[in-house]
Amino acid sequence: MNLVEEFNEYRGKMNEKIMAADNKVIKRFFNLDTNAYTEGAIDVKAKEMMGLSCSMVLRCDDCIRYHLGKCYEVGITKDQIFEVFSIATVIGGSIVIPHLRRAVEYWEELEQKSN
C-alpha cells in the first residue's frame, strides 16, 4: 500500500468513528470545513491551493496530504503546486522544508497513481 492509499484509508476509518460519536460541535465543524472549500466568489482550485499553503505554514502533514489530494483531483498542475510550495516556504521559513519534502513525495505518489 502506498502513502496515498494508507492516508485515505486511515482518514476514512477514523472519520467514521468520529462521526459515529454524533457530537454536534464536531459535526458542525466538519461541515463548516467542507463548505469553506466549495465553489463561491473564489473557485475551488484557488481555495485548495490556499488550504495547501496554509497547511504547510502551519506544518500539518495530514492537512498537507489532504489538500494535495484535492489539488490533484481538481486538476492543479505540478508547476502550480510548486508555486504554492514556494509561497508556503517563503511565508513559513526554513521550518517548512521538512514538510515540503514530504509534500513532494506525496505529490509524486499521486502522479504515479494515475499512470
Treating each run of at least 4 consecutive H or I residues as one helix, how many helices? 6
| Secondary-structure arrangement, i.e. CATH architecture | Up-down Bundle
- Low-confidence spans: pLDDT under 50, at least 5 residues? none
Name the structural class.
mainly alpha
The SSE string, one letter per element, is: HHHHHH
Helix coverage percent: over 70%
Percent strand equals under 5%
Task: State mean pLDDT (0 to 100 scale).
Answer: 97
Structure summary, number of beta strands: 0
Q: What's the main sheet like?
A: none
**Looking at the structure, what is the overall shape?**
globular
**CATH class, anyone?**
Mainly Alpha
CA-atom Rg in angstroms: 15 Å
Structure description:
The protein has one domain (3-114): AhpD-like, CATH 1.20.1290.10. It is mostly helical. The chain starts with a helix and ends with a helix. Helix content is 79%, strand content 0%. GO terms for molecular function: peroxiredoxin activity. This is Alkylhydroperoxidase. Keywords: Oxidoreductase, Peroxidase.
Short précis:
By secondary structure, the protein is mainly α. It contains six helices and no strands. It has a single domain (3-114), classed as Up-down Bundle (AhpD-like), CATH 1.20.1290.
SSE blueprint:
Layout: H1 3-20, H2 24-36, H3 44-58, H4 61-73, H5 78-92, H6 97-113
Helix pairs in contact: 3-4, 3-5, 4-6
